[in-house]
Amino acid sequence: MTKTEKPLDFLWFIPTSGDGSYLGSDDRSRPADPGYFREIATAVDRLGYTGVLIPTGAACEESFVLAGHLAAVTEKLKFLVAIRPGTASPAYYARLAATLDRVSNGRLLLNIVVGGSVQELAGDGIFLPHDERYAHAEEFFRVFNSLIETGKANLDGKYIKALNAQLGFPPVQEPRPPLYFGGSSDAAIDFAGGRVDKYLTWGEPPAQVAEKIASVRKAAAAKGKEVSFGIRLHFIVRETDEEAWAAADRLISKLSDEAIAAAQEVFAKNSDSVGQARMVALHNGRRDRLEVSPNLWAGIGLVRSGAGTALVGSPKTVAARLREYQALGIDTIVASGYPHLEEAYTVSELLFPEIGLGSPRNQIRSSFGERQVFGGGGHGGNVRLVSGS
């Protein structure tokens, strides 16, 4: 990073449906455990990550409730939580959002998730066709934004009706917490251009990301708005490129062809998400074509829905790839790695210095200024080195 570049806003991920060391295996897997989520949240808060994404879905813990829990045990960490239009009224979501922003002292970020799983949407009582879901979301946020920004809203819409709706308490952030959103269809991009503050893309090759950014900018400009951009990526960072690629191979070393086929069948059957289709098209379920762009590896998407790509390499290599995305306009990274607690430390220790991010917050001095090297934690303490050695 040059001295004139602004450091990336770097968020981490809370794996609320569970975690593990191997995809497609129960070996060394970790269940969805609130205690484990606290460990991750407090670690990344100290390590210097600016926030965490808490996912949403039938297989995940409820994001607003968990964010409220984690806000109580962290200091500066922000929480990117999901609003899913149709699962509750805009007035109810406005009360949730305002309260969470107040109890966290302004640490709320809002992630608009319109939904791409037809099966899951049906379970939530939502039966609108793909593009119509965005028309519904547009009305939803007309009411939501009015309530959380002014305390009042009225709308007699096709999908949403609100008569003299009121919000008792404003959020800490003015005029409201920022709205994040990701979607790849034409309807999604048009919605993003008019409603969101930050557009998130999944980790596609830079040329494809550039096309999406251009489309969103055009849609925003047509509505007199500006949008900033982020990218959702996994990270496999090791001291050398060779070690990183070995770790990527190890992550899917226990993944069977049957598990891959079953996952891909579910994606095809249950999802009408254009973004998910773009993720699948990067690899088409094949193990022999996983490096889809230099150091961009699609192995995770063989079985994981949504974000399916990782940047793989040494700190210098991964930093160079991130600078390519920065040059396109990306200013925010929403990151993850398996398992999430250990990889949060690895990314912080190896990658952060290369991209200009600082040391852990509130770090206590470990010496009176002498250079020290770790001596194994014995009774004699660390090895003190003579200055200049």
Automatic annotation (TrEMBL):
Keyword annotations: Flavoprotein, FMN, Monooxygenase, Oxidoreductase
Any single GO molecular-function term of the entry would be: alkanesulfonate monooxygenase activity
Record carries keyword Ribonucleoprotein: no
Q: Which domain of life is it from?
A: Bacteria
Domain Luciferase-like span(s) in chain numbering: 9-331
Classification via InterPro entries: Alkanesulphonate_mOase_FMN-dep, Luciferase-like_dom, Luciferase-like_sf, SsuD_RutA_monooxygenase
| Reaction(s) catalysed by this chain's protein | an alkanesulfonate + FMNH2 + O2 = an aldehyde + FMN + sulfite + H2O + 2 H(+)
Q: Identify the CDD domains for this entry.
A: Alkanesulfonate_monoxygenase
User: Where are the membrane-spanning stretches?
Assistant: none
What the entry lists under SUPFAM superfamilies is as follows: Bacterial luciferase-like
Enzyme class, top EC level, equals: oxidoreductase
Q: What EC number(s) does this enzyme carry?
A: 1.14.14.5
Q: Which GO terms describe its biological process?
A: alkanesulfonate catabolic process
Its family remark reads: Belongs to the SsuD family.
- Please explain the role this protein plays, according to its UniProt record: Catalyzes the desulfonation of aliphatic sulfonates.
What HAMAP family does the record point to? Answer: Alkanesulf_monooxygen
Which protein, by its recorded name, is this?
Alkanesulfonate monooxygenase
> Origin organism of this chain?
Ciceribacter ferrooxidans
GN (gene name): ssuD
